[in-house]
Amino acid sequence: MSGITSFTKGRIHDVVLKPLGKFLDERGWLCELFRSDELEQSVLPAMTYVSMTQPGVTRGPHEHVDQTDYFCFMGPSNFKVYLWDTRPDSPSRGVRQVVYAGLDAPLAMIVPPGVVHAYRNVGTENGIVFNAPNRLYAGEGKREPVDEIRHEEAAGSPYQID
C-alpha cells in the first residue's frame, strides 16, 4: 500500500485528458482515438483491447508499476473515472481526481504508472471502453507476471468509490 490514508481533491500531475471529436456524416460517425504523431514515445500502445461494463458496475481500483494506460471513453454510456496519485515523487501525491467521460463527454485519458484508477458505468446502457496500454498484458507470450496491483478487496482501502 502507498502509505497514504486520505486524499485531497485536485488535478493529478501527468494524467492527460484529451476531448475526443466525432466526425459525423450521413453514414454515422468516426472518432480518432490516438495518433502516433501526437503521443510521446513512452506511451505508444503495445496492444489494444475493448471492454464492456454493465450499468452500475465498477472496474478497479487498481494500479500498475510500469504500465501506462491510454483509455478512450466515447459511449454509448457515461462513466465516472476515479484517480488517486500515490507516486512518491509526484507534485500531486495524495491528490484524488474524479472525471466524467463517455457519451456526453468523449475523452481520451492517459493514466501513468503509480496512479490508482477505477471507473464506474453511471449510465443506463452497457458502456464500451477502449484501452491501448504501452505494455503487453502478462508480457511477451503471456509468460510474465501481470503488472497490476488490485485494491478492490483490500480492507480499509483509502481508494473509496462514492
Please outline what is shown here.
The protein is built from no helices and 13 strands. By secondary structure, it is mostly beta strands.
Structure report:
It is globular, with a radius of gyration of 16 Å. A six-stranded mixed β-sheet has the order 1-9-8-11-6-13, with no helix packed on it. A five-stranded antiparallel β-sheet has the order 2-10-7-12-5, with no helix packed on it. The chain has one domain (8-138): Jelly Rolls (Sandwich). It is mainly β. The model has no long low-confidence stretch (mean pLDDT 95). The chain has strands at residues 8-9, 16-19, 22-25, 28-31, 49-53, 58-63, 69-73, 78-85, 95-102, 107-111, 115-121, 127-131, 149-150.
How many helices does DSSP assign?
Answer: 0
CATH class: Mainly Beta
Q: What pattern of helices and strands is seen along the backbone?
A: EEEEEEEEEEEEE
CATH architecture: Sandwich
CATH superfamily: Jelly Rolls
The percent range for helix content is under 10%
- State which percent range the strand residues make up: 35-45%
Termini separation comes to 20 Å
DSSP, total strands: 13
What structural class do you assign from the helix and strand content? mainly beta
